[in-house]
Design goal:
Blueprint (H helix, E strand, L loop, with lengths): L11 H15 L4 H11 L44 E5 L7 E5 L1 E2 L2 E2 L7 E6 L6 E6 L6 E2 L8 E5 L8 E6 L11 E8 L2 E10 L10 E6 L1
Parallel strand pairs: 1-2
Antiparallel strand pairs: 3-4, 5-6, 5-12, 7-8, 8-11, 9-12, 10-11
Length: 217
């Protein structure tokens, strides 16, 4: 009994091979025609899905034009960076507009940075007051009350008993600084957040003066 052979449809690779053979036999006369046929045979429909690896692609041939960005998933390391303008808890923030709790800043541990604590005080008015400051709480304490010259208390928002205090007499604005000097020390053991300032004239007598105070912790 004669066997029947099933006819199989040639693959795209076989078709291209046959075209190459025909081209080699026929010469350059059929080159253009063969190339046109090859383009029609090898297309998105004839290439098997997931059969071409990345290493087979020419560098920089896949661009945003060919990629549907909406189909791309979120990069795992960027899952918590939906907003780069504000980073509440950033381990590393190279260029952060606002970083509420950053463990590092420019590669330096956050603990190495200290809060700015300072005050410019109007000490010559009837009621002493803070002109501008950072980290202060409340207003200036007029130690001794009205009529007692050159004694002030400035309270900050943290314990400054273990910090260094720098103070100097100086106009609160752009005026001329009067002669004299100032000293600073802890207010009381019961007030670890406060600093006591004494201002003197050039003779060493307590006298009301504007002053600038800086705390370094």
């Amino acid at each position: 009994m004669r066997k029947r052979f099933a006819f199989k449809r040639p693959s795209a690779a076989m078709v291209v091979a046959m075209l190459a053979l025909v081209l080699a036999i026929s010469g350059p006369a059929l080159a253009d025609q063969a190339a046109t046929v090859a383009k029609k045979v090898i297309n998105g429909k004839t290439i098997k899905n997931k059969s071409i690896t990345g290493s087979k692609l020419k560098s920089n041939t896949i661009t945003g034009t060919q990629v549907n960005e909406s189909k791309l998933g979120k990069v795992p390391s960027a899952a918590k960076a939906d907003s780069a303008t504000n980073a509440t808890n950033a381990v590393n923030a190279a260029n952060a507009v606002n970083a509420t709790n950053a463990s590092k800043l420019a590669g330096v541990d956050g603990g190495a940075f200290v809060q700015r604590l300072w005050a410019v005080v109007d000490g010559t008015s009837t009621t002493p007051s803070i002109v501008r400051s950072a980290g202060t709480v409340g207003d200036v304490e007029d130690i001794g009350g009205t009529g007692t010259a050159g004694l002030y208390g400035v309270t900050f928002n943290k314990d400054v008993s273990g910090c260094a205090s720098l103070v100097t007499v100086g106009d609160q604005g752009a005026g001329t600084t009067p002669a004299g000097y100032a000293t600073a020390e802890g207010r009381l053991s019961s007030q670890p957040n406060a600093i006591e300032i004494r201002t003197f004239d050039s003779t060493g007598t307590l006298s009301n003066r504007d002053f600038h105070l800086v705390i370094i912790c």
